[in-house]
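Re-running Starvation-inducible DNA-binding protein to confirm reproducibility after the cluster update. Everything else is unchanged from the original entry.
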Amino acid sequence: MAAKQKKQTSQENPTPNWHAKAKEAQAYGSVIEDMPHYLDAKVRAKMVGHLNQLLADSIVLRDLYKKSHWQVSGPTFYQLHLLFDKHFGEQLEVVDTIAERIQLLGGVTIAMGGDVSKLTKIPAPPVGREEVPVMISRLLQAHKIVMQECAKISEAADDAGDQGTNDLVVSDVLRPNELQSWFIGQHLVDAPLVHTK
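Result of re-run:
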């Protein structure tokens, strides 16, 4: 028994091997060539390129909502603080859904902040706090960019016979973005609290 214990101990090393290095398993921009999918690799590669653009812009939009949630102030603080956080959570789901589609098509998702910032079409906000109307305007512009990308991808997916991507960008990305932009856009309507004659 003691010999067996000694043998196990001599083979085990309690120090984590955290210096592991290897080549990339799959390069960004490539797709798995031979996989059980009805779309051919060229079509999947094209869709993955479009979806990575949408993913980058959606990640930035998601993060704009968290920045706005943290930095909002003023008389509408409570309502917007909660609304921005709700929209952040919804965008988190949108981002995950897009990323899963990219992987399903045999591609590699863009993921890291530095890489996302190089690809996104959404202008970067200042590090500091902005006034509420500017925050909302920035969010609305980001939504517009995402929705325009959805329309472009939907058309390309339809032309390529990629019903899965078409359905995803319309149902899971475009519609939530339309609804969110409507909700926050209403905060910029110049309407008096009381109508007088």
